[in-house]
Design brief:
By secondary structure, the protein is an alpha+beta fold. About 20% of the residues lie in helices and about 25% in strands. The protein has 5 helices and 8 strands; from the N terminus they run βαββααββαβββα. Strands 1, 2, 3, 4, 5, 6, 7 and 8 form an 8-stranded antiparallel β-sheet that branches. The longest helix has 12 residues. The protein is globular, with a radius of gyration of 19 Å. The protein starts with 11 loop residues before the first strand and ends with a helix.
Length: about 220
């Protein structure tokens, strides 16, 4: 996996996200935990089976995010090809995630202290040559997810207007190339205890605001 040394951007713009259930990390409040279904017990010789989880991922947000996170990742758009450096719809270890930061050892300690639970990723290369990576990072609770958003040090320009009737997120647009020689834009959204982070990079030109906003918004709509 590429180390995301360009993650700390010097500028960002506010981003409104369609689907009001998606809360930006600046205003998202922790949701109460969804209680687990009770386990049935019996004193009979043959134990009764555990009751099936009655929560429906189609209608229960917590059930959806407690399932296989890979199932809620964006699919590759038409005309795009697999990104060779980003395994498609794969799991990410805590060590892999720490490599996204300039100081992986410190990042690893912080991720452990924040209650890192699991992460998934996918990626592709668009027909016009942009490399796209989408990650979902899940923590034990929403407060820890908020801590991770703070850990990225992604700034937000609050002077930029948000989209009406939508939640807030942030995108970073680079002013210079990263150590890999690419311009890499960054999107960040918190949804409960899950943080979505998106990278869009180009070799010749800076990604446009629409490049990063469109992917970030489409992924957020699935959470």
């Amino acid at each position: 996996m590429k180390r995301r040394t360009g993650l700390l951007f010097s500028s960002a713009v506010a981003l409104g996200l369609a689907g009001g259930a998606v809360g930006g990390f600046l205003i998202q409040q922790g949701r109460p935990a969804t209680p687990l279904p009770p386990i049935q017990q019996t004193l009979a010789a043959a134990a009764a089976p555990v009751a099936a989880d009655p929560r429906d991922p189609q209608t229960d947000d917590a059930a959806k995010l407690d399932g296989d996170l890979r199932s809620v990742l964006l699919t590759k758009p038409a005309g795009a090809t697999d990104e060779p450096d980003t395994p498609v719809r794969d799991w990410v270890t805590i060590g892999d995630l720490a490599e996204y930061f300039q100081d992986p050892s410190t990042a690893l300690e912080q991720l452990n202290s924040l209650g890192f639970r699991r992460a998934v990723r996918t990626g592709w290369t668009t027909a016009d040559g942009a490399d796209v990576e989408v990650d979902l990072v899940q923590f034990r609770n929403s407060d820890n997810a908020t801590g991770y958003c703070t850990m990225t040090h992604t700034p937000v320009d609050t002077s930029e207007p948000a989209f009406p009737e939508s939640a807030d997120g942030a995108v970073g647009i680079p002013n210079r190339k990263d150590p890999d020689g690419r311009y890499t834009a960054y999107g960040l959204v918190q949804h409960g205890n899950v943080v979505e982070q998106v990278f869009v990079s180009r070799a010749q030109n800076r990604p446009t605001t629409n490049d990063i906003v469109s992917v970030t918004r489409d992924q957020a709509d699935l959470l």
